[in-house]
Amino acid sequence: MSFLGKLFGGKKEEKGPTTHEAIQKLRETEELLIKKQEFLERKIEVEIQTARKNGTKNKRVAIAALKRKKRYEKQLTQIDGTLTQIEAQREALEGATTNAQVLNTMKDAANAMKLAHKDIDVDKVHDIMDDIAEQHDISREITDAISNNVAFPNDIDEDELERELEELEQEDLDKEMLGIKVPTDTLPDVPAAELVHDKPKPARSKKDVVSEEDEELAKLQSWAT
Fold first, then answer.
1. Which residue from 131, 132, 108, 129 is spatially nearest to 120, judged by alpha carbons?
2. What is the sign, positive or negative, of the torsion defined by CA atoms of 201, 202, 207, 208?
3. Contact 35/79 with Cβ under 8 angstroms?
4. Neighbouring C-beta atoms of residue 189, cutoff 10 Å
5. Are 97 and 19 in contact (CB under 8 A)?
6. pLDDT tens per residue across span 103-140
7. d(CA 154, CA 67)
8. Side-chain-side CA neighbours of residue 124 (13 Å)
9. 82 — phi, psi (to 5°)?
10. Most confident of 140-144, 157-161, 201-205
11. Predicted TM-score (pTM) of this structure
């Protein structure tokens, strides 16, 4: 605005409508044009019926109806073109609004991320991760040291154990060859009833022993004579 305009109170610049207001006006215009289309379609149908009804009776009236129909159809075609342009403009404006919202959201997210990383130094992060890895290694070494049995160190010679096992096996083999069975952990079952042939024989008396000796001596004397 010029100096004179400011001095004499010139007209102020009007602020344009917002995106939301523009989209809303476009939608209202679409609704108005759609209603106009429906009205013209009804008018066209009425003129067609009039032309049919007066085609043979009153040709002048029928021709006039067809002329009006043509006029309505021309208006309908113009409205179709206008409606197509308005729909395309509204869709483009809605797309631009969506893109602007997405861009603003991404911008806010970038600023928030920048603020979150403001006090973070990448080199310090690497140092911290190295310290964490080192502490993990120390923790594993401590765990291994605690789990190691100090009273029984793991320095036993495996070859010596193998030789000792072979000697034990050889001893068992030698005992089996000599007829000596290796004792087992379980004892044989004792039969419940006594066997008849396992009963001990009654002890012989001294008299019976002397009689048998006399009989043997008599046999020897008879063979000698």
1. 129
2. negative
3. no
4. 6
5. yes
6. 999 999 999 988 888 888 888 888 889 999 999 999 98
7. 114
8. 5
9. -65, -40
10. 140-144
11. 0.44
135-164 burial by CB neighbour count: b if 16+ within 10 A, else e? eeeeeeeeeeeeeeeeeeeeeeeeeeeeee
Condensed to tens digits (0 to 9), the pLDDT of residues 49-100 reads: 999 988 888 889 999 999 999 999 999 999 999 999 999 999 999 999 899 8
CA distance linking residue 30 with residue 85, whole number of Å: 10
Check: CB of residue 40 under 8 Å from CB of residue 79: yes
Distance CA 175, CA 165 (A): 16
Q: How many CA atoms lie within 13 A of 24 on its CB side?
A: 5
Judging by beta carbons within 10 Å of its beta carbon (0-12, 13-18, 19+), is residue 76 exposed, middle or buried? Answer: middle
pLDDT tens column, 151-189: 555 566 778 878 888 888 888 888 888 865 545 555 555
CB 10 within 8 A of CB 4: yes
Name the amino acid, one letter, at 201: K
Exposed / middle / buried, residue 101 (Cβ in 10 Å: 0-12, 13-18, 19+): exposed
